[in-house]
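Student: Send me a single protein entry containing the residue sequence and its fold in token form, directly below this note:

Tutor:
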Amino acid sequence: MLNKAVSLSVVNTVRRLLNDNVTRIKWPNDIYTGTGKVAGILIEHNILSNTIQHTIIGIGINLNQERFPAWIPDPVSLKQVTGINFDAREVLDRYFDNLVCEYSRLRKGEFASTDADYTACLYGYGQEMEFTAGQCKFTGRISGVDAYGRLCVMLPDGIVRTFNHGEIRQNSQVAK
């Protein structure tokens, strides 16, 4: 749930800065606007005796970059999208406002609404997509992310399979 709240915080920040509604979460930890990756999230927990001792959250938002190294997949910056230079402090302040709001929902136990908002922001949600898992290519529809953080994909026969990070890759949307 913490990953979902952090992801929503980043998505809402980017959406407000771009004045758009197309920015999406590409499971598990990327934020895309259009076809470009505008942000990434890393979360690490320190666990002792089945209890989270502390959590470190790393967030990178591409603000004003105009060039990226060739090895970075699908990068885009807010400046490339809008033509505007962004003030890092102002973006950080907006992000913290959104994070406080999302974290407050978690503290109040509003898990269902956080989950629903997160699912609605998933890149490819409900769309027929092509995936690769191991050597197997198949089509399916993203139906959500379960309580363990696994991607849920509904196959054409109606069976829902779950995948951990690194077990599946979204290839593309299936042309209609």
